[in-house]
Specification:
It comes from Azospirillum lipoferum (strain 4B). By secondary structure, the protein is an alpha+beta fold. It has three domains: 2-72 and 92-167 and 259-327, FAD/NAD(P)-binding domain; 173-255, D-Amino Acid Oxidase, Chain A, domain 2, CATH 3.30.9; 386-477. The strands form eight sheets. Strands 6, 7, 15, 16, 17, 18, 19 and 20 form an eight-stranded mixed β-sheet that branches.
Length: 478
């Protein structure tokens, strides 16, 4: 028995489902394979607010409401000091979710737009061909074959194709469990210990979920995990009373090491989600990054298949995008760990490199990364103050997303930008920047650009350029 498809996606997590949905919307026949009949238990139970916009891009605006997502504007944190503090995020707070329900709804959404979902199903065998792949698939209907142009690795850390990886941080183990007990906090909590950091979350069903991140070599054998985890949690003044707490199900230990795949695409294949890049769990942005890779990969594959002459350009774009995302996130986490080390690290942290504790291993790594772009600022400029283009700013051709394809466009390059920028808020920068006079001023520039952009967008764009030092006070060159 055979199946018809253009693209096969292996793995129906957030990245695999998002990619399958977007590719179907672009007109491709997609086969989505998933080994487990039900979404697997996940340690993470929160989403960053950017996921809301990503779901809207996929036409899934109401999915967060359907999965019971709850905003969490307040959390209790003990990170850079001895005392805990309540942190407020009144605008766009993180969202607390049931990950099983969320992942299940994504599977349903994929099937609803026309994705051929086989679940449970396994990839028995694969053979590359000049045209793509011949796959042998096993499911309830038996063994079937399908010929596809592209195979997508969305298998997470297991890695079907993208197995060679570069670590973006030290080896990290996550211990997680759900607890039942009489005295737990009613808001999310983050706490630090001498050799770990911990996260706790009250759930709608009355259980309390915990995650502890620790060095793998500091953990006991599986038989001693529950007692070890209970001891770490009990030492926290934030996470509640674990003396009378009962775990619901076994304590799980999973790899949480950050890494980037050495190759994220190749002839006839591409990797998305954790198969391409796994982030340090500190930011809780794993789902958002996974969907982001899927949305980019959909455009890359659409370009490859409809414009084969641009395939190499599309692959370079995707490799650069994944690399830049991994480096940006590593700089962010390294800074947080370095700050925390100052307050919670033990005296043994002064040991030589490679022999330090949990905090020592996670700080001081930024020297190995390219320098971070300078932080944007609010430039204080008078309306008539002369402005000129910074000598380090230039326009050059680069690859970028243009509609549903990867194309070459003239983009703005500057040290303050993480990547070249071709468009900003829907405005193509090259025509504006190439027509800049040698010296102008803020008032004249806003008046000139307002003709085509409108006053508000023109003022916003000038503010962005001055805030990144792309436009500078003319006297700054003297």
């Amino acid at each position: 028995m055979t199946l018809d498809a253009d693209i096969a996606v292996v793995g129906a997590g957030p990245a695999g489902c998002a990619l399958a949905i977007r590719l179907t919307q672009l007109g491709w026949r997609v086969l989505l394979l998933e080994r487990s009949s039900q979404p697997r238990r996940q340690s993470g139970q929160s989403l960053t607010p950017g996921v809301r916009l990503q779901l809207a891009q996929l036409g899934l605006d109401g999915m967060l409401r359907l999965c019971g997502a709850r905003p969490a504007p307040r959390s209790r944190v003990r990170w850079q000091g001895v005392e805990a503090e309540d942190r407020l995020i009144p605008q766009d707070p993180p969202l607390l979710i049931d990950r099983g329900r969320f992942d299940g709804l994504l599977r349903g959404a994929a099937a609803g737009v026309g994705v051929r979902l086989l679940c449970p199903a396994v990839l028995i065998d694969r053979h590359p061909t000049p045209e793509g792949w011949i796959l042998a698939i096993g499911d309830a209907a038996g063994e079937r074959r399908v010929s596809v142009a592209t195979l997508v690795d969305a298998t997470g850390r297991a890695g079907l194709l993208a197995r060679a990886r570069t670590a973006c941080g030290p080896a990290t183990l996550a211990l997680y469990a759900d607890w039942q007990g009489p005295a737990f906090p009613d808001l999310p909590c983050i706490d630090t210990g001498p050799e770990h950091w911990a996260w706790g979350l009250p759930r709608e069903d009355g259980l309390f979920s915990t995650l502890v991140f620790i060095d793998p070599d500091a953990t006991p054998r599986r038989a001693g995990l529950e007692a070890f985890l209970r001891r770490l949690l009990a030492a926290s003044p934030l996470l509640g009373d674990f003396a009378a707490a009962t775990p619901v199900g076994p304590v799980r230990a999973v790899d949480a090491t950050a890494y980037r795949a050495d190759a994220v695409s190749g002839p006839g294949w591409i990797a998305v989600g954790d198969a391409a890049m796994a982030l340090d769990p500190l930011s809780s942005s794993g789902v958002q990054k996974a969907i982001r890779t899927a949305l980019a990969a959909a455009i890359v594959l659409n370009t490859r298949l409809r414009r084969p002459e641009a395939a190499a350009l599309a692959d370079r774009f995707y490799a650069d995008d994944v690399r830049d995302g991994a480096e940006q996130h590593q700089r962010w986490t390294d800074g947080f760990f370095a700050a925390a080390r100052q307050s919670v690290a033990s005296p043994s942290d002064d040991a030589p490199s490679g022999r330090g504790t949990f905090w020592h291993r996670r700080s001081g790594r930024m020297a190995a990364l390219p320098a971070a772009p300078p932080t944007p600022h609010s430039a204080v400029l008078y309306p008539d103050q002369p402005l000129t283009l910074a000598p380090t700013a230039r326009l050059a051709t680069t690859s970028c997303l243009v509609g549903d394809f990867v194309e070459e466009r003239v983009a703005l390059h500057h040290p303050a930008l993480g990547r070249p920028v071709a468009w900003l808020a829907g405005v193509e920068l090259a025509p504006l920047m190439s027509a800049l006079p040698a010296v102008t001023n803020r008032r004249a520039l806003i008046a000139d650009w307002s003709i085509t952009l409108g006053p508000q967008r023109a003022a916003s764009l000038v503010g962005w350029l001055t805030g990144h030092d792309i436009l500078q006070a003319a006297c700054a060159e003297r």
